[in-house]
Design goal:
The chain is built from 13 helices and seven strands. The strands form three sheets. The chain has a three-stranded mixed β-sheet with strand order 1-3-2, with helices on one face. Helix 9 packs across helix 12. It is globular and about 65 Å long. By secondary structure, it is mainly α. It has one domain: Collagenase (Catalytic Domain) (3-Layer(aba) Sandwich), CATH 3.40.390. It comes from Haemaphysalis longicornis (Bush tick). This is Peptidase M13 C-terminal domain-containing protein. Pfam families: Peptidase_M13. One of its GO terms (cellular component) is plasma membrane.
Length: 315
């Protein structure tokens, strides 16, 4: 029952519980680095994305301008939203909630009051004549989930607090390791915003299609190449991953390119020694890009083994 109550608070009040998580694990002179570093990394990966599109030779200028504008129009939620990041802002945002008596009110009473207040608050948004609210107000982005998100209907990318910790990011590690892990996740979500299934939507969710016929044909030709690549190298599985997971494959590969571009933009980076072997910065980048998907798990008497973590797979 306790876990159910906690789960309810995490789901229904994500920014409040996110603020608690931030205070416990990501505050203070040692830990606030994680949020600052993640925001800096997002800026650098977006800049690398912009530069990458400016260098492409297979899209025409009108299409290029649209894609760059689309990247610039992304709304970013990195950690807590900037307008919901303090106790005062959170109190004001949740002022629609009534005070509960924890001694008298039952859990169902409190949940009913919460649900009713949330519905009434959303109805007020529908009736408001103000400019559209930010995605942070209209969407409850999970803050304690080890994942990241691109929401096409809002054209927003969210990098929750929980994914800013190891193995995705750690203070004191070479930049190559952090860019290969968290940087790749960031690039993955940015690439989703360029997917042909969602790119015709603008930041308001309106359907437009500024891609020229030739640019789209060139894009699809490259997607076919990527599909063949994944179908030919399925890690021994009988599933044709090029046909069944094209959207994720596209985001994984595009995210890798964007994050690597951002790492290279930092300038020359020294090699590092891990155990008894020396790796260049770019080698470390690719090591980290693989390592982040693995976690030690117990497998009966056989002991620990490396398997894809059930907790992490950015979608």
């Amino acid at each position: 029952m306790v876990s159910h109550c906690v789960r309810g608070a995490v789901d229904d009040l994500p920014y409040v519980t996110g603020r608690m998580f931030e205070r416990w694990y990501l505050s203070g002179p040692e830990n606030d680095y994680q949020v600052r570093a993640a925001r800096s990394m997002v800026d650098r990966v977006i800049d690398a994305t912009r530069r990458g599109f400016l260098e492409l030779r297979w899209i025409d200028e009108p299409t290029r301008r649209h894609v760059v504008e689309r990247i610039d129009d992304l709304e970013l939620i990195v950690g807590l939203p900037h307008n919901l990041s303090t106790d005062a802002q959170l109190d004001d945002h949740h002022s629609y909630l009534s005070q509960v008596d924890t001694d008298e009110d039952t859990y169902p009473d409190m949940m009913w009051a919460l649900r009713r207040a949330m519905v009434e608050a959303r109805l007020r948004l529908l009736n408001a004549s103000l400019s559209p609210p930010s995605a942070a107000v209209t969407l409850n982005m999970p803050m304690l989930l080890v994942n990241a998100f691109y929401v096409p209907s809002e054209h927003v990318i969210a990098i929750p607090l929980a994914i800013m910790l190891p193995p995705f990011q750690q203070r004191g590690l070479p930049a190559a390791l952090n860019y290969g892990s968290l940087g790749h996740v960031i690039g993955h979500e940015i690439t989703h915003s360029c997917d042909e299934h969602v790119s015709p939507l603008n930041e308001s969710g309106t359907h437009i299609d500024p891609w020229s016929e030739q640019s789209r044909a060139n894009f699809r030709e490259r997607l076919r190449c990527l599909r063949r690549l994944y179908n030919q190298h399925g890690a021994g599985a009988s599933v044709a991953f090029g046909d069944t997971a094209m959207t994720e494959n596209f985001a994984d590969c595009g995210g890798m390119d964007k994050s690597l571009r951002a790492l290279r933009a930092l300038g020359p980076l020294s090699s590092q020694r891990l155990a008894d072997r020396e790796f260049s910065a770019e080698q470390l980048f690719f090591v980290a890009s693989c390592y982040k998907w693995c976690s030690p798990v117990q497998s009966g008497a056989a002991g620990g083994s490396a398997e894809v973590s059930q907790a992490v797979r950015a979608g």
